[in-house]
Amino acid sequence: MADDFVIDVTRIRDEARKKMADGPVTDTYGLDTAKVIAVLNDVVATEVVCWLRYTRHAISATGIDRAQVAAEFTEHAAEEMQHALRAAGRISQLGGEPDFDPATLAGRAHTDYTTPAGRDLKAMLEHNLLAERIVISTYQEIARWLGDHDPTTRRLIEWILEQEEEHADDLTDLLAE
Ligand SMILES: [Fe+2]
Ligand SMILES: [Fe+2]
What we know:
Elements: H1 9-18, H2 33-60, H3 67-93, H4 102-108, H5 121-146, H6 151-176
Helix pairs in contact: 2-3, 2-4, 2-5, 3-6, 5-6
The chain binds fe (ii) ion (FE2) (2 copies).
């Protein structure tokens, strides 16, 4: 009920003044920032691994009869890199350090860097579709966990999730052809 909604502006003004060095992270932040940063760093690792896989497959799929698939892989790769950068930017806003350390990327990623032998287009499409289906599930869980506690990070994850669902749909269409 709107009648029950009262904001204690005096208290919020006092709290806002206390930890100015925390920048956008205020007293009303509903989660442990260290935990959110750790989860986002796993998202960064996942997106970099997806960028690597798509880029590798785009190069392998290049050829006259494969131009459509190669173009799709290239487009997806560019979007995965954007996802990594956006997640890294949010980590920085929350006062954390984005982790692009190649030594630990594969271990932190939700998906695997897999490349089928040779130039098997169908296998490449399947490897990427499996990866997309994995991130669709893990990102849904992250969005639910964030809930109302950190709406900005949740909306970022939801935006990424929407694109992953488009990727999975694109790959499904190509596999059906
Ligand atoms: Fe992505
Ligand atoms: Fe994707």
